[in-house]
Amino acid sequence: MGTVTRGTTNPNRLRRMDRWIAAVHGSELRRTADPVAVDLGYGASPWTAVELLGRLRTAAPRTRVVGVEIEPSRVAAARPYTREGLVFRHGGFEVPVPVPGRPSLIRAANVLRQYEEHQVAAVWQRLCARLAPADPVSGSRGGLLVEGTCDEIGRRHVWVALGPEGPRTVTFATRLGSLDRPSDLAERLPKALIHRNVPGESVHAFLRDFDRAWAAAAPYASYGARQRWIRTVRRLTADWPVTDGPARWRQGEVTVAWGALAPRH
Length: 265
What we know:
The chain is of the alpha/beta class. Helix content is 34%, strand content 19%.
């Protein structure tokens, strides 16, 4: 279920997203008896699934990864890379996994860019329904869907994190040395937001304030782009619900509550 993507991929393209997932969702994976992560729409080459396994296992050594692709020839080409903890399956938004239960993670990177904006909500709902449910007794928030977009070599990302209940946060991540101003990230907004970067919409106001804070932090550029970014994000926290802290800001990231950036109309 779904549409075949262009399949463009490169080694290390999703490293920023993977490292964020390992840091933010690693504890959830560790408390799960049999954590399964899905690389949905991995593309013409299996590199992103192979790398996801390695990065998640640094945080949760029992994690298994299932690469899912809707194009059968891509699945056939990937199968020689099967190894302990990594398999490949033909499928789409129905998210077939070769084990009982539901996945603890679904990563869908650069998949929905080719869809229409009005289709996104239904895809999100379908994928979130496949996630492991929350468990109030154990304190588990359930599985995580990470859906977003990056450039061809992984310098700039924006992604939405969703739980079984729906959208939670939006994360902006970049290689700081490549950034002229934060609104450069607008071209990597996920499909749910990219057409909302216009006056009157929250994401437009956020990027405007981000640029203003970046300009105000210009004196810190002499200490390096990282220090300027940290100072910029700290200014943002006065007006926007930033959900992370300096440890993540130092990585060239900032995460904001979804409700603050969600489309208004």
